Amino acid sequence: MARVIKRLDEPEDEYTKGWAKYMMKVETIYKKARDSRIRKGTMTLVIPAVDLACKCPKIKANKAYLFLGREKDDSPTANLPGIIGVTQHSIAHEWKSEWDLRMRRFRRRARKCK
């Protein structure tokens, strides 16, 4: 779960041309691989500008989102540290506070192998 802080209006470089950048704060990581580059704290989120034009996903500042997807995908930033790419293979869903207890329960069940 991550909270989007603001949209970045930085000059585009060769990796992120045609992609919108957001600053986000990763608050909770529910599942990740051992060699994952996702860390708690501030990270950059990149979304294709084409997807923002059709408002899917509709990303708003100061809102929390649950991001689901593969870490190593076809985004131009797949190998860059500190940057997460959201593509057509990812899901970005606005976080609801009542999901927190549900996610804790799922993690507890996974630890107990039920």
Topology:
Elements: E1 2-8, E2 19-26, E3 41-48, H1 49-53, E4 64-68, E5 83-85, E6 91-94, H2 99-112
Parallel strand pairs: 3-5
Antiparallel strand pairs: 1-2, 1-4, 2-3, 4-6
Total discrete domains: 1
Strand portion: 25-35%
* Strand numbers in spatial order across the main sheet: 5-3-2-1-4-6
Shape: globular
Distance between the termini: 24 Å
Name the structural class: alpha+beta
Mean of residue pLDDT values: 80
Secondary-structure element order, as H and E? EEEHEEEH
Q: Tell me the number of strands.
A: 6
Give the helix proportion (percent range): 10-25%
Sheet with most strands: 6 strands, mixed
Highest CATH level, the class: Mainly Beta
Structural Rg = 15 Å
Total of helices: 2
CATH level-3 fold name: OB fold (Dihydrolipoamide Acetyltransferase, E2P)
Q: Runs with pLDDT <50, length 5+?
A: none
CATH architecture label name = Beta Barrel
Please provide a written account of the structure:
This protein is an alpha+beta fold and 114 residues long. It has a single domain (2-112), classed as OB fold (Dihydrolipoamide Acetyltransferase, E2P) (Beta Barrel). It has helices spanning 49-53, 99-112, and strands at residues 2-8, 19-26, 41-48, 64-68, 83-85, 91-94. The mean pLDDT is 80.
